[in-house]
Every structure is written in C-alpha cells, then in structure tokens.
Amino acid sequence: MVSLADILRAEISEQISERERAKGREEGRAEGREEGRAEGRAEGRAEGRVEGRAEAREEVRQKLLQAAKNLLLKGMPLREIQEVTGLSEQDVQEIGAYTLH
Question: Residue 44, Cα to own-chain centre: how many angstroms?
Fold first, then answer.
C-alpha cells in the first residue's frame, strides 16, 4: 500500500521537476534572445558597411563626373579626361554632350 508520505514525496518531486523545467525553458529563451540580438547586430553592421561602401563609391563617381565636366569646360580633350579620371568613354561623352551644348 502507498503511504501518504510516499504520495506527498511524489507530488513534491513532480512540482520541483516542473519548476526546474520551467526555469530551463526560461533560460533557453533568454539565451536564444541574446543570440538573436547578437546575430541581428552583426547583420546590421554588415549591411551598414555594404551600404556605406556603395554610398562612398557613388560619391566618388559624382566627384569624378563633376571634375570631368570642369575639364571639358576648360577645353581638355575627351580622351585625356577619360585617362585622368578613369571614367568610361561613354561617361565622358555623355558629360560632353550635356556640357558643350
């Protein structure tokens, strides 16, 4: 026959086990949240670097286009402007078409 003490011990043991499982779940959630935050920060930094580089390249390109325009206005030949700026022949010709008309 099962004694009252055995039943109480089993019930207490079950309650302790449930608390431990709940604590483990909460610790797992907290760990998962922190890992997610760290991953999000890393992804955000990587995206920021990519966007920053793209913006910097575009800024440099715009400055080169402006320099090419200024050189055209000073009368420098298209081929020399292309060599000096590193812009494509098409880019320099397009600038020339807009600048010289």
Answer: 4
Contact 92, 82 (CB under 8 A): yes
Neighbours of 34 (CB within 10 A): 10
Q: What is the pLDDT of residues 33-71, one digit of tens each?
A: 999 999 999 999 999 999 999 999 999 999 999 999 999
- Residue 7 tokens, joined: 């039943």
Contact 68, 85 (CB under 8 A): yes
The amino acid sitting at 1 is M
In 3D, which of 72, 53, 51, 50 has the Cα closest to residue 61?
53
Amino acid 88: pLDDT: 92
Q: Distance (Å, rounded) from C-alpha 31 to C-alpha 38?
A: 11
Using the predicted structure, report yes or no on whether residue 95 has a pLDDT greater than 90: no
Task: Give residue for tokens 């050189």.
Answer: 71
